[in-house]
């Protein structure tokens, strides 16, 4: 009887399969811009969706599509990352930055954008088209009309996954 109880308790525990495939739930990335760097942390929400935050600095140059462009000296962002495939994903961004405009003025800016990234091996290449609103230093205290801008090519390097 004791032997039967022993097998009754050990077989369900030993018989369960142990998943040998490690699923990555968190990741830290380094984004290399032309003259600046960004670091971001993201965590898994579902199989295809990640959420995260990032900060960056340097001269994060952005080309203006309907204006003179912007250089972001400090940038922070919150984002949601949606993976279509392992090779392609979109990042929906909320942005706050300290920016210098092509007009020679600067101030704080807020905005939103979409990052488009393609995986090539372990690294990713992408761009981030955005709309930002700049509040000029010494200005009226209001944000100007939106500026449509896009980043230069971004090289994303995953630093750590766990």
Kindly list the characteristics that best describe this protein.
ten-stranded antiparallel β-sheet
Write the layout of secondary structure elements.
Layout: H1 2-14, E1 26-32, E2 35-44, E3 49-64, E4 70-83, E5 88-101, E6 106-120, E7 123-127, E8 129-136, E9 147-151, E10 154-161
Antiparallel strand pairs: 1-2, 1-10, 2-3, 3-4, 3-9, 4-5, 5-6, 6-7, 6-8, 7-10, 8-9
Structural account:
This protein has one helix spanning 2-14; strands at residues 26-32, 35-44, 49-64, 70-83, 88-101, 106-120, 123-127, 129-136, 147-151, 154-161. It has 162 residues and is mainly β. The protein has one domain: Porin (Beta Barrel), CATH 2.40.160. The termini are far apart. The relative contact order is 0.19. Residues 1-22 have low confidence and may be disordered.
Q: Level of helix content?
A: under 10%
The structural domain count equals 1
Q: Count every beta strand, where a strand is a DSSP E run of 2 or more residues.
A: 10
Radius of gyration: 22 Å
At a glance:
The chain has one domain: Porin (Beta Barrel). The protein contains one helix and ten strands.
């Amino acid at each position: 009887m004791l032997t039967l109880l022993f097998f009754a308790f050990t077989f369900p525990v030993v018989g369960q399969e142990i998943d040998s495939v490690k699923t990555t739930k968190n990741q830290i990335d380094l984004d290399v811009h032309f003259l600046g760097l960004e670091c971001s942390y993201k965590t898994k929400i579902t199989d295809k969706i990640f959420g995260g935050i990032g900060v960056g600095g340097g001269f994060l140059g952005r080309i203006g599509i309907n204006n003179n462009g912007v250089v972001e000296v400090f940038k922070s962002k919150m984002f949601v990352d949606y993976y279509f495939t392992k090779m392609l994903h979109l990042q929906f961004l909320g942005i706050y930055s300290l920016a210098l405009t092509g007009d020679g003025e600067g101030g704080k800016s807020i905005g939103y954008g979409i990052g488009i990234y393609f995986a090539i091996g372990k690294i990713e290449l992408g761009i981030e088209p955005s709309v930002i609103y700049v509040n000029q230093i010494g200005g009226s205290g209001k944000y100007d009309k939106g500026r449509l801008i896009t980043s230069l090519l971004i090289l994303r390097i995953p630093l750590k996954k766990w």
